[in-house]
Input
Amino acid sequence: MPGVEIKSVVIVGGGTAGWMTAAAIARVMGPRLSVTVVESDEIGIVGVGEATIPAINLFNQMLGLDENDFLRNTHGTFKLGIEFVNWYERGHAYMHSFGTIGKDLAYIPFHNYWLHEHLLGRGGSLWDYSIDFAAARQNRFARMPQIEGTPLPGIIYAFHFDASLYAAYLRRYAQQLGVRRIEGMVVDVQRESESGDVRTLRLKDGRELTGELYIDCSGFRGLLIEQTLKTGYEDWTHWLPCDRALAVPSERVSPLTPYTRSTAQAAGWQWRIPLQHRTGNGHVYSSAHMSDERAHELLLGNLDSKPLAEARPIRFTTGRRRQLWNRNVVCLGLASGFLEPLESTAIHLIQVTIQRLILLFPDRGDNSRRRDEFNRSSAAEYEYVRDFIILHYHANNRVGEAFWDDCRHMSVPDSLTHKIELFRETGGIFCPSQDLFQLPSWLQVLWGQGIKPRAAHPFVEAVSPGDRADYLKGIRDLIADAARKLPLHEEFIARNCQSAGAVAPVR
Ligand SMILES: Cc1cc2nc3c(=O)[nH]c(=O)nc-3n(C[C@H](O)[C@H](O)[C@H](O)COP(=O)(O)OP(=O)(O)OC[C@H]3O[C@@H](n4cnc5c(N)ncnc54)[C@H](O)[C@@H]3O)c2cc1C
Output
């Protein structure tokens, strides 16, 4: 028998996590549920988080957002992947581009056909079979779901945007759907004596707020999930040793690259995210291997345009909350854990956790079974992403550099060792359906980080050598031709979604 519905939700925090959650719940549940967001201007938001992955399109579609309007309002640009510079070794670069690589034949994934040719010195580069890579390399972009007249998929894309404008945009959206916003700082949390559930939030000005479900989007502090409920945190610093970041905006430059760049530094890495009005930059580093002064110096020394503000320091501990749902509190965003932004996964993790919460939404009865499912799935999801990020650090050839030597020699989770060794042995990549990153992603990063299989799958030889070569060449040519015909990224934006605040680029 269905339980009795709960009627009120209180969300603590109005950053990206808080407003994504409010917008989604209001959209799906409608007026049957009262949603209140309490946020504090005095505390503010973390204000970084500018690069996304393609799954954000599903979130935007669910909300029914107009993509051009969304980009105009957030100074957004398009993203086709992440370029990794100096990660495997200094002077080396590769891209984790979105979308597929080639096209599978029967049961055999495409890369086996390519690998077979490659080991014979033919077939070009792995990235010759990615339309996203070809477009990114030429700074081109258009919405193209299919390569016209072929069975090949087209461009798969995500966005870069200004994080504070994104939260503000979703806030307007959620408020139009009836979400109530309260400006105020929560200073005290009352709990039920028997169940231990959160009962009331008291604000600095004395007002009180009560809900049946509390969603903690209060950022790193985890006001309800940790400070109140003491849920506990699993620390992954031994696998992902970076614990600090410096973020600084700089002038917009041209060409407007449709990809994020991640450049490995001596003890971490530097991001570069092109927006319509500025470039977002940051340096993520390990404080055990580098001083703050040196990190600052490296960041500023590697900007490709003039800084527009002082660099802002951020500290974090990589890991996840032991339970994302504890009693009547669910946490999302930075309150739920932190995985460094190397693969731009945080906003995605918020989005899938919201979806899971909606599917397992509590009622006034016993919620223990759905809570267990929620916690188990959320933990697995975090761990899959964690393994993928560790791979970038661990598989390096930067011999003689202390940070990179430590990463190369550290022991990694068994799940990652298994994946790496299986790829070496068989060329095969097997991803559970819950893993955010599927074969094309793992393939590009494994290969890009220098992990090479011994041989391709033997069954590729069932196709004659001539047909194999023709098949590969056909795909390569179609992709190269389609990419050449795309407009420049900058032109596409100017025509479709230029924001009023966009500034002329520095050339
Ligand atoms: C260096 C860095 C780079 C990142 N880059 C990316 C990226 O490229 N892509 C990506 O997907 N993610 C990225 N992230 C993660 C991303 O920034 C966050 O996931 C996202 O911004 C969500 O933050 P949040 O809403 O959880 O927290 P916050 O933005 O910190 O918001 C917390 C909210 O809680 C409120 N609050 C806190 N305490 C109280 C209180 N007592 N009373 C009332 N209100 C309170 C605050 O006012 C604020 O509104 C990055 C993170 C960092 C640190």
Q: What stands out?
A: The CA atoms of residues 63 and 365 lie 29 Å apart. The domain at 244-315 is CATH 3.30.70 (Alpha-Beta Plaits). The mean pLDDT is 96. Residues 12-18, 38-40, 43-46, 48-52, 163, 185-186, 217-219, 221, 223, 245, 247, 282, 314, 316, 333-335, 341, 344, 346-347 surround flavin-adenine dinucleotide (CB under 6 Å).
